[in-house]
Each structure stands twice: as structure tokens, then as C-alpha cells.
Amino acid sequence: MKLKPLLTTAVLTIVCFVMYIPSLLAQLPGDPGTDPDEIPIDGGLSLLIAAGVAYGAKKAYDKRKKEPKAQNDLKKVE
Length: 78
What we know:
Blueprint: H1 3-25, H2 43-66, H3 69-77
């Protein structure tokens, strides 16, 4: 077991963490806005929802395409 790479990784992680802490503490409290209870639904959430819908549609399409043709024909008749 090589201890040097593990020790190097641990030291670099600790140094990065310690360097990041002052920037977290230096943030001034911002203006909460008009209503702090409002939840902004921005582009990130809507893109995530769109990606989920697209993924579900793709899975349904692949599943339907994979079924034998005879089963598809029976479903159309019913």
C-alpha cells in the first residue's frame, strides 16, 4: 500500500478546504427580497424536468420498439 499518494491527497484536500472557509465567512447577508417565502423556479429546474421527461419518453420508445411485432398488432386491435 502506497502511503505517499494517500497522504498527498489528504493534505491537498485539507489545504483547499482551509483556503475555502474564509470566502464562506466573508459573505455579507443579502437582501431577502420582497417575500422570502417565494421559491424561484429558474432555468436549471425546468431543464432538469425537461431532461426527465425526455429520458422517460426515450425509455418508453425503446421498450415499445423492443417488443415483438405480434404483441404490437394485438394491442392495436384491442
